[in-house]
Amino acid sequence: MSNTFNADKMENQDSLDLEKIKRRFLEEFRSGKPTFGKDGALAPLLKHFLEAALEAEMDLHLGSEERGKGNRRNGKVRKQVRTSDGTIEVESSRDRSSGFDPQIIRKRETVLAENLEPRILGMYGLGMSLRDISSHLKEMYGMDISHDTLAALTEKIVPQVKEWQARPLDALYCVVWLDAVHYKVRQEGRVVSRAVYNILGIDRHGHKELLGVYVSESEGATFWLSVLTDLQQRGVRDVLIACIDNLRGFAEAINSVFPQTEVQSCIVHQIRNSLKYVASKDQKEFLKDLKPVYRAESLELAELRLLELEEKWGKKYPKVLESWQRNWEKLSTYFKYSEQIRKLIYTTNAIEGFHRQVRKVTKTKGAFPSDMALLKLIYLSHQNISKKWVMPLSNWSQTAQQLAIWFGDRMQLDLK
């Protein structure tokens, strides 16, 4: 193989004006123009190299055994190959038995540069449509990549998504936020709503991790139960604190799978739901009276302020105050902890912040063609967002020590 390749290489060098190529390369490199594209300075070199390598592979393929079967070269075939800097045309030999499977450019492979796929997936993960990506590649790299080719490239991540969804998880998560966000998906010619269940956790070292993403037709405690069971099957044995919205039956679903978990309902959700049933002329004053309840320094003081709130507003808005009393056990969990932990758990802001970042990517999509298309984009968005999750939460060492005091052996510190 090496002798053939060297011979072809010498022949190729003789047919190329290397000095002219060098000059053109320097000009294009300095101006930022593509150097490997169809008209790039290095395109002839790349073309000759690839064709010589393909011929060398064919020589190796047509060894004595193949020739003994009567197999030999059978003309040439041309194909367009896309590189990271443009498209070039490559010519290679065929064999009579059609058994030749080159490695440098595989059969039916039309994209040469391995780094092109991550670029495409990166743009897709930033919310660009396939049409936009195609236009961008045409403008920047002189490549004409069809919608079908791009769609096929994005389909390659489906196994990655499924593998990520089924990956093993840690045995312990200190804090977990659970929330759903809704999207539109096309199904059998009509647009339907889908609830995407996201679980964001903090591991024992203080690092954020998206534990899972699940798609369902609607949000409900029953589906959350299946989500929690899946987390358990993937290795989660304990969750110290779970932060949720006020969905009925949600806390019970959590405790049926993780019976020791402390559940904190989101104060902000409760406030929003309350204001729906308070007249607009009373909202400002009601909020002023409500703030001392959830901002109280202790549970006892918060309960006293809640009684005062009920005395003033209970007759006018009985259902609102009944809701606070009914959910008080879940709403008041955070009072037992220090200010540092309180700020972490009294709302679901952490996961809502994640949702906002994903929405920046998905907002241009009217309706997704399928559930998997929705999952793919959320997965790729998460890949970009999680690049910033390399450091533990601020002051985590102090928080971890406080959690270790509260939860004892359930929260083991790495102390030597």
From TrEMBL:
Decide whether keyword DNA-binding is in the record: yes
Segments carrying the region annotation (Disordered) are: 64-99
Keywords tagged on the record: DNA recombination, DNA-binding, Transposable element, Transposition
Which Pfam families does this one have? Transposase_mut (PF00872)
Task: Please note every region of biased composition (Basic residues).
Answer: 70-81
The signal peptide here is: none
Look up the domain of life of the source. Answer: Bacteria
Q: Is Lipoprotein among the key words of this record? A: no
Q: What does this protein do?
A: Required for the transposition of the insertion element.
Family indicated by similarity: Belongs to the transposase mutator family.
Looking up PANTHER family in the UniProt record yields: MUTATOR FAMILY TRANSPOSASE, TRANSPOSASE FOR INSERTION SEQUENCE ELEMENT IS1081
Could you tell me what this protein is called? Answer: Mutator family transposase
